[in-house]
Amino acid sequence: MRTTLLRSGLAGFALIALTGVIGGPATAQTYPAKPVKVIVPYPPGGGVDPVARIIAQKLSATFGVQFYVENLPGAGGTLGTGTAANAGADGYTILFMNPDFVVQPIIKSKVPYDPFKSFEAVTLIGVSPEMIVVHPSVPAKNMEELIALLRANPGKYNVATPGYGTSPHLASERLFKLSHGLEIVHVPFQGGAPAIASTIAGHTTILHLSMSTLAPHIKQGTLRALAVTGNKRSRAFPDVPTLEESGIPHHEVEYMIGVATPAKTGTEIINLLQGKIAAIVSLPEIKERLIALGLEPVASTPEEFSAKLKEDFATWSKVVRDANIKID
Prior knowledge:
Blueprint: H1 10-19, H2 26-30, E1 36-40, H3 48-63, E2 67-71, H4 78-85, E3 93-97, H5 100-107, E4 119-134, H6 143-152, E5 158-161, H7 167-179, E6 185-188, H8 192-201, E7 206-210, H9 211-220, E8 224-228, E9 254-262, H10 267-282, H11 284-292, E10 296-297, H12 302-323
Parallel strand pairs: 1-2, 1-3, 5-6, 5-7
Antiparallel strand pairs: 3-9, 4-7, 4-8, 4-9, 4-10
Helix pairs in contact: 1-10, 3-10, 5-12, 7-12
């Protein structure tokens, strides 16, 4: 999956969006008149939470009204996402999400929202490739050696993911089982932190997770990176090859963090939020903080973000069908 990044003209527009007044109906001109709830459907920490707090803090300063983060974890992100879907369509509730936003409705028969009918896309803040890492005791030093190792030892090795039906799980199913026919044991955890802890301890041997979550452990040497799943190398880890460079093409996977509002939120408010967030993301100090978290800043338009969500939905729907993955 390749993401079209919106970078041209961002710097100039950013200055206008941060310092100017965007015209429109009175609802946009007076918004926000009270604190805005920022729902993060995951626990504090992790991939989405720090990004939401960085952006919320800047939005508060920009508007002079508090944008406060409320963590509502549970059910693979669907609990908080469902709460956001049922909030008022007035711009006073916004949602920060990751790929689970489109994956959960694919693998579950019932979720409390529809990713396309319940929400309006605002912007894709940033993307990060996922990474394939191993415990240092694993003899494979690259993906070619790992594939050969798994093929020679069917069922001996396992791959940890942050949960059954998460995008790392689907990506590992596509990579190891559907594409290479390898017999490998999937070990799902309740989130990325326990999956990382298990692999560092050597209880699990291979780990598929977002780079933003794995970055500090790779730098510390407690995990060894074999490949990134993006279409280019990461600025944070320029020595780690892509899957395509490793001889495994057409397996690009990006962890994304984006923003949406409940359906029927006015276009003026959506455009206002998108403009302000794009301006914030363009600030050098914010770019540095996002890159340090393993994210490549994007700040797409609502239309571009909506198109990406639909593309991801189609991609993961095929993987789920092919691998026969269902939770209920």
